[in-house]
Write a structure and sequence with these properties.
With 129 residues, this protein is α+β, with helices and mostly antiparallel strands. The chain has one domain (23-116): 2-Layer Sandwich (GTP Cyclohydrolase I, domain 2). 19% of the residues lie in helices and 38% in strands. It has helices at 58-66, 75-90, and strands at 11-13, 23-33, 40-50, 54-56, 94-104, 107-116. The strands form 2 sheets. The chain has a 4-stranded antiparallel sheet, with helices on one face. The chain has a two-stranded antiparallel sheet with strand order 1-4.
Length: 129
């Protein structure tokens, strides 16, 4: 194969750095291994972020997500590690990663991890009639 999994996240310059806007990315094919049994765990990852000066490049993000396939990890740890890596790569104003893991032993697990730049203030919600 010419394409291989990679922990290297890439970015590109935000084309609209003067505006707050939200990027939403759904990744329905995340897999890692249970650190106790070695069995595969499957999850849907939902990433939401407000970029600052850089945005995440999607092909690199896909290869990054793929890099966890053969790695044993607890749901809570892998979600927080991924958020830390993505924040380190693009330094967003705000980022939220929601990992919805499929059933294991009759239990579904959802882990939500967030980062907020302390200098950023979320815009006020507008309710339209």
């Amino acid at each position: 194969m010419t394409t291989q999994p990679s922990k290297a996240l890439e970015t590109f310059d935000n084309p609209q750095p003067g505006r707050d806007y939200t990027v939403r990315i759904r990744m329905p094919e995340f897999t890692c291994l249970c650190p106790k049994t070695g069995q595969p765990d499957f999850a849907v990852l939902n990433l939401e972020y407000v970029p600052d000066r850089h945005c995440l490049e999607l092909k690199a993000l896909k290869l990054y997500i793929w890099s966890f396939r053969d790695e044993g990890a607890f749901h809570e740890d892998v979600t927080n590690r991924m958020l830390d890596d993505m924040v380190r790569a693009c330094r967003p104003r705000f980022m939220r990663l929601t990992a919805e893991f499929n059933v294991r032993g009759g239990i579904y697990t959802t882990v939500v991890a967030e980062h907020r730049n302390p200098d950023w203030h979320a815009p006020e919600n507008i309710a339209l009639p």
